[in-house]
Amino acid sequence: MRKCSINAIDSVFAKIAESLALYLPVDGSDGKATYKKWENGVKWSNALNTVKSPKEFFFPQTEDMMEFKTSGKNIEIIDTREETEDFVIFGVRACDVRSFDILDRVFLTMPVDSYYASKREHSIIVSVACTKPSETCFCKAFGIDPAVPKGDVTVWKTETEIFFESNTAKGADLLSKIADLTEECDNAPVEEQKEKINKIMAKLPLADLKTEAFGGGKTEQYFDHPAWAELSESCLGCGTCTFVCPTCQCYDIKDFNTGNGVIRFRCWDSCMYSEFTRMAHGNNRLSQKERFR
Amino acid sequence: MQKITCEQLIEKAVALLNDGTVSCVLGWKKGEFDYDITPALFETEEELKNEFVWNDFCRANFSKYLISKTAKCEGKILVFLKPCDTYSFNQLLTEHRFDREKVYAVGIPCEGMADIDKIKAICGDGICKIECGEKIAVSTIYTDEPTLIDAKDVLAERCINCKSKKHVAYDELIGEDGDVIDSGRFDEVAKLEAMTPDERFAFWQNELSRCIRCNACRDVCPACTCEKCVFNNPKSGVENKSPANSFEEQMFHIIRAFHVAGRCTDCGECSRVCPQNIPLHLLNRKFIKDMNEFYGEYQAGAEVGSRAPLVNYTTEDLEPGEVFDRGNKDA
Q1: ipTM above 0.85 for this complex
Q2: In a domain, A87, yes or no
């Protein structure tokens, strides 16, 4: 484990940014954090989390897939992908890091989604442990430890210091870049922090959330539960839940007529929308209750 | 703190339900957290007594819900309306969007609603309990004692700039009616107008570039009540599920503001539900301010059946050339 003073963090960012594009949560004019590219003067946000999840780095809200140009009877297919370079996402929370595993299972199993894969392969994830979870947090129910987030490097932030530990070869490589700015240290303050977080987690309003109602063979049992009608009563159907969700991965593929060709792009879609899952026979989810469920 | 108590409203609702005046009640109930008060339909006395809530977090405007609920509910539906909600109520009636005969509207005074972001700025995250009394008492898992907050200090923007404490529609009123207020709601717009076009463009680009095109603003808007929005209709040719290009930054919200111009009552629901905190109400207020200046003062929803300036012709109307000249002056 290595550490640096909290005052040295900007020079750590500067060092990383010398050779890699570095993204981290930054406070916006509305007081909420968003991932932004680091440059001189950009400050790492203290916010617990960003409004939108970092899934966007691998699975952007809109992404051009290819372009078609026609001349006479010929169609030219142009690959619009650009070469991705290595980049660092710094300050990812444990829940968001875990979401990458879930996205990977969808996009990286056969057939591999090459658009996702190329960005994923080039990423270096630096996670940060939580110190002040919100009342809305329930990661423990999903077996996530907010005190020990995964990723290529794990970071713990105390009042005065930042601690780094690499978990992968990529992570070790990144830490070697900032070796001059950090020093070898013992892990006592980190252990102390882990203990503190665990105590806080037990106090959260959703600490006792159980997931046993989910799982194979249980769908039938809850399908007609009256709670669906009640819960969906106030649902606007805006789909914000699916857009900010770190693991929602549904998308639509559409063609955009540019006037002298066609751009085929994909964009996030949402099960909350009326046209979602429309098939040849029509739509099997006609009410907001059904979509919500 | 609200002057009318939750008990008063429950008592009223139970009485109207039991004497058969109404068959269901549109009201508020607690969501996952004490500050997440959500709209709910109550059908029994028991539900009302157990779950009905009225406090400083009852922000939702129910008027739009009446479109779907009156179509579904047998008999009359009781709806509680804050002063600002009554403007949307009238505007929807003007547009024949629900059957007035199927609604029993009870006007309730409102002292303004709290903004949870402002509360969190004071007492931090980890809220486990909120009690609304004389003061708002907020308990968090990080503090031993609850933080006492004066509701006046954490009012939502639209409540600080409340345009009216007067109910413009109701069958019955609980408490006293208020007056139309000479609010400062156009001050922010005036600030934007005073900017150079480049500054203003930068302001809106910064705000609108955050749009994720969830359309929550449209979904909650009482002036946007098409059963099928063109943007959800694959056959419209403009179906748009996400910000595909800079269109959102420049066009979508401005076009939507044009579409609701003269019908927008400035209820502020658009900004309330925006997950990205985009101050959408400023676009609508700009249109309202312009219309007031060009065509004389007009408040959408102040009465049922009024003709909005943009769909009404009078010989005193502004000449298009004057608008054009104004545009040139700005540039």
Answers
A1: yes
A2: yes
> Does an H or E element contain B217, and which?
helix B216-220
A118: left (phi over 0), alpha (psi -120 to 50) or beta: alpha
HSE-up of B79 (CA within 13 Å, CB side)?
Answer: 30
Tell me if A270 is assigned to some domain.
Answer: no
Which pTM does this prediction carry? 0.91
- The total of other beta-carbon atoms located within 10 Å of residue A133's CB is 27
Whether chain A has a CB inside 8 Å of the CB on B117: the answer is yes
Is omega for the bond preceding A111 within 30 degrees of 0, making it cis? yes
On whether the CB atoms of residues B256 and B224 are closer than 8 A, the answer is yes
Report the sign of the C-alpha dihedral through residues A175, A181, A184, A188, in that order.
negative
The count of structural domains within chain A is 1
Q: CA-based angle B120:B125:B127, to the nearest 5? A: 90
Containing domain of residue A6, as a range? 2-210
Q: pLDDT tens-digit profile of B57-99?
A: 999 999 999 999 998 888 999 999 999 999 999 999 999 999 9
Residue B252 phi/psi, 5-degree rounding, is: -55, -50
Residue from the list B126, B207, B212 with its beta carbon closest to the beta carbon of A135: B126
Contacts of A274 in chain B (CB under 8 A): 228, 232
- Is A240 within a domain? no
